Amino acid sequence: MRRVALFLFVALGACASSGPIASGRSTETVRATGPGVGMTLTPSAGLTTTNVAFPSEQVWRTMPAVFESLGIALTTVDPKKHLLGNEGLKIRKQLGTVALSKYIECGTTQIGPNADSYEIFMRILTDVQPGPSGGAIINTTFEASARPISFAQEYSRCGSKGVLEAKIAQLATAKLQK
């Protein structure tokens, strides 16, 4: 029994990445089971940080319009923490006018990317903090999970492509440059 457990730990170690995981990216949950062994490794939420050259108060004021333009309804708004976002967005096929597969990776089947045909549950939160030289720091945490519509199946974690997080910072900057 110890040999089976040792084998599983060695096998998992051989599959592990040797370098750091890029910010804003999430990895898949790994489960290992066997006689006397049960383990689940789940990554934490991806955090993407962007520095912008505008004062944090100005950036904070643009954020509701940024989220609206992306098609993300706000369910969380905390002016004291400069935090806003949606902690329970259930969607299918697209976010706003953009296919979900542009933002997240949930695997692929014969009919195409799962992100475009599965039910997606997203959590996206952004906070704005004072940054260096009078600028601001935009921190975005993004998680997504998916499950097929046609089958009774649990949600599986999807990975962020980093596009949505970058787009939030780009839209905020564009709105402030007007």
Outline the structure in words.
The protein has 178 residues and is of the alpha+beta class. The protein has one domain (44-177): Alpha-D-Glucose-1,6-Bisphosphate, Chain A, domain 4 (2-Layer Sandwich). Helices cover 25% and strands 39% of the residues. It contains 3 helices and 13 strands, in the order H-E-E-E-H-E-E-E-E-E-E-E-E-E-E-H. It has helices at residues 2-15, 56-70, 163-177, and strands spanning 30-34, 37-41, 46-52, 76-78, 83-92, 94-95, 98-99, 104-105, 108-109, 112-113, 119-130, 136-147, 156-160. The strands form 4 sheets. Strands 3, 4, 5, 8, 11, 12 and 13 form a 7-stranded antiparallel sheet that branches. A two-stranded antiparallel ribbon has the order 1-2. It has a two-stranded antiparallel sheet with strand order 6-7. Strand 9 and strand 10 form a beta hairpin. Helix 2 crosses helix 3 (163-177). It is elongated, with a radius of gyration of 19 Å. The protein starts with a helix and ends with a helix.
What structural class do you assign from the helix and strand content? Answer: alpha+beta
CATH class: Alpha Beta
Label the overall shape.
Answer: elongated
Number of domains: 1
Percent of residues in β-strands? 35-45%
Based on DSSP secondary structure assignment, what is the total number of beta strands?
A: 13
Rg (CA only): 19 Å
